Amino acid sequence: MPLLDLLRPVSDEELRALSERNPGWQFERLADGRLVVSPTGGESGRISAAVLGQLYRWNEARGLGVVFDASTGFKLPDGSVLAPDAAFLLAERWQALSPEAREGFPPLAPDAVFEVRSRSQGLEELREKAAWYLANGVRLVVLLDPYLHRVEVFRPGGVEGHQGPERVPLGPELPGFVLETRGLFLP
Length: 187
Known about the structure:
5 helices, six-stranded mixed sheet
């Protein structure tokens, strides 16, 4: 995961402009001001889209909240701006934000986030990111590793590892949602 140490911290507006000027690259800002830069490869993009589709269909059937794609950066309580591959936020939390807050980087932690490992990321890096999410109030973090055919589910109370699963239930945080992994991990 390439990290850029800049001469000064990047503002929210500058971070948004960087993202707009550099399509295909994802920019995230850590709490210490460093930027994380990562391209999305085809395989991780394919899996992220499939996960986003499952999450969207689940939410459409239940109407519990709002689903976000990887282009959405969330400004977390520690000042970092992270953009998960997919995220879910309860409706009442989204509706409590002002229209201005909804237009920018939403200033809160999502209720659930999904991260897909890309070739340029190590599993330990993603586990560190999961810890950052949890420390900032995310209740459910799901890491998908297409290279090891592994799903790890992080909650404030601990971690569950699933090797080669076909289905991973993600309640109670996402009531009734079961992540279908068939077709996500290719041989």
